[in-house]
Amino acid sequence: MDQSLINELGDELYRALTSASMIDPLTSRFADMGIEDAYQVQQRLIARRIENGERVIGKKIGVTSQAVMNMLKVDQPDFGMLTDRMVLNQGECIDISTLIQPKAEGEIAFVLKEDLAGPGVTVADVLRATKGVMACFEIVDSRIRDWQIKIQDTVADNASCGVFVLGDQLIDPRQLDLVTCGMLLEKNGAVVGTGAGGATMGSPVNAVAWLANTLGSLGMSLKAGEVILSGALSGMVPVAAGDNLSVTIGGIGSCSVRFA
Question: Which residues of 9-48 are buried (b: 16+ CB within 10 A; e: fewer)?
Fold first, then answer.
């Protein structure tokens, strides 16, 4: 794709984001769009957000489960950017009208104390560079109509990120087994999801190492102080006004969010 078309599509996604509206899938209009093209569209979208006062504070990893990879017909995850306007604190209320077609995912968030620059980043490097982990919600949201996405659509749309909510406990990951730690996700008091750390690429630490190495191949790195969302531990849960959700992850803590 030429740069003018990439800019046009990034601007279209930005307008959809700011107006909380949907657009037709990019892949339905540009069948030859590749994943590299999609990441360039994502960069344009993020550039527009930065131009309007946002600041990148971390990254998110998506498509970390084999089931989602199979659905999107890919063999690797994807990533997107987190900005300071996306983050909410434990228990905060989200105005549902600011989102389009949101769904909630329970995840483990990493907070870095050191830079991580690939290639060659190992699991040990990730643990050494991590200040702590916490329970979190990612509220995924798609600007693509009715979630009719292929991998290029979600990549271009900043990996379908909406907002995210961090818990209030930061735990040293070296004190935990991040593979077997269990997750319980509740919606309005009913259990709607269960999982464990191993659901994310065998371990959420593997996911962060993958991200550091993938960014390294693109001349980018993870920075000290950044928040990294490592991927969903169970399926996406649709949300609506009036819903109250909580997630508890063994040894890490809990996080809650409500919608109005």
Answer: bbebbbebbeeeebbebbbeebeebeeebbbbbbebbbeb
Q: What is the pLDDT of residue 67?
A: 66
Would 24 be classed as within a structural domain?
no
For the chain, the domain total comes to: 1
**Nearest 10 degrees: Cα torsion 39, 114, 106, 103:** -30
Domain contains 38: no
What's the mean pLDDT in 152-173?
96
Q: Is 134 exposed, middle or buried (0-12, 13-18, 19+ CB in 10 A)?
A: buried
Query: Rounded to the nearest 10 degrees, how much is the dihedral formed by the CA atoms of 247, 96, 62, 193?
Result: 30
- Kind and range of the H or E element at 65? none
For the whole model, what pTM was predicted?
A: 0.95
